[in-house]
Amino acid sequence: MRRLVLLTMILLLCGSSPALPGNTAKAVKIVFLSAFTAEDSVTAGLPRQGAETALKDINPPNGTGISGRIIQGIFVHLDTAQEIPTPTFEALASGKDVDLIVAFLSEDFATEVSGLAKRLGVPLIITNCLSRELALGKSNRYTFNIGWNSCQIAKSAAITAANTGKKKWTSVTPYKGTGREVWDLFKEFIKRISPTTEVANDDEVAFIERGATDWSGAISHVAKSGAEGILVTLRGSDLTSFLSRATDIGLFGERREIVIPFGGSIAVLASARARMPVGARIGAPYWYEAKPTSINQQFVETYIQEFGFPPSYEAERAYAAVRLYQMAVTKVGGTDKEGIVNALKTISTEDDSLPAGAFSMRPEDHQGIFNIVWGRMSRHMRAIGPRNRHVMRSLEDIRVLSPSDLALPTGDCRGK
To answer: Keywords for this entry (predicted)?
Structure first.
């Protein structure tokens, strides 16, 4: 019944085609699909907010649309972790009525959605899936990943960790999934960067089940490992839960360096508040204060006015997806799907074209290449947004790692 209601709503939305005043052209239809597992629930709403900001900036009265056509955004959220309702996509994208799918996915859903895009012949831009399947190029010509993948995360974390000078590293990491991939890849990368650095054996690593609530054993385990550095590859609600308990127990002493690749989400920072460890190394593919460009300032200002707090990287990547599609349409001169696929395959932008800065698509595997931001967690708490509604720690001592810092040969991302 739920699927039938969802399908009916989507068909009704696809039936209308508004256009700019004086222009009879049909609207450009973009489906924004979100499908997350429970651990990502804390950040699940952010991509939609970024997409809505893009529509506001590009559509009238602020913009002129795409080639004189407005964008009609169709938002679909799937709250099941069991399966993707294939009939929904069949109805959604058949009849050449949908021009683009932008997907905000947990890695559990990436392969299936990518396969559907290929079968339907609709370009698919994935904004924040970390899947190794995508990192290894196991997608197809219709799928483009503009989020950071496990390889980029792991190498940037390894560079950051190596710069601390700590000689032994362990991890708090999931048993499986992207977090585990990042730890496995991190071990390889840090040994390449700093051959004398030691990485913990598996019996010195805290492997965590998704949705864990008792962190005492894991914290005790890594504390006894003798490691000077801890790579924490948890995400979302798992990360905030762990940080809360670890802070209470006192794991984050001055002697240990803490590296948290997924700690740079505004939702995580706002949720953890004072329990974010001071001085921890925090990563993100975008930080709202890192780029003083006009497009970033416009994006940040519009976003804060609308939602009351600064944009996170989940929001920025969704915004970037719409902007990249706009550029592809301009290059092709229309919305022909095959033309758009060919344009996205080699798309490249300047530093002031997207909020996060310069971007290029690697044609071999359709992986986006861009800067990655790392910083240290501030001691002071910052009030942000209108009327200072949100209080959180922020990033300081920001370092931007460029694509040349993170360069990897295509396919050099296999771990063990």
So the answer is: Signal
Q: What angle do CA 225, 228, 234 make, to 5 degrees?
A: 75
Query: 67 — alpha (psi -120 to 50), left (phi > 0) or beta?
Result: left
Query: Kind of pairing, strands 100-105 and 168-174?
Result: unpaired
What are 377's strand-pairing partners? 395
User: Residue ranges of the domains in the chain?
Assistant: 2-148+292-370, 151-284+372-401
The residue type of 412 is D
Q: What is the pLDDT of residue 412?
A: 58
- Rounded CA separation 178/368 (Å): 18
Q: Is the dihedral of CA 298, 304, 306, 312 positive or negative?
A: positive
Residues 138-152 have pLDDT tens digits of 568 999 999 998 889
Bridge partners (DSSP) listed for residue 100: 30
- In 194-310, where does DSSP find H-type helix? 216-223, 236-249, 266-272, 294-307
Report the distance separating Cα 352 and Cα 336, nearest Å.
27
Domain 151-284+372-401 has CATH 2.40.10.10: no
Q: Give the Cα separation of 337 and 355 in Å (integer).
A: 26
pTM of the model: 0.89
* CB atoms near residue 174 (< 10 Å): 22
Tens digits of residue pLDDT in 99-141: 999 998 877 777 778 888 888 899 999 998 776 665 444 568 9
Dig out the tokens for 235 from the structure.
Answer: 């995400």
Using the structure block, give the residue that is written with the tokens 């907010």: 49
Q: Which residues pair with 374 in a beta bridge?
A: 283, 399
Instruction: Provide the 10 A C-beta neighbour count for residue 68.
Output: 11
Q: Which amino acid is at 149?
A: N
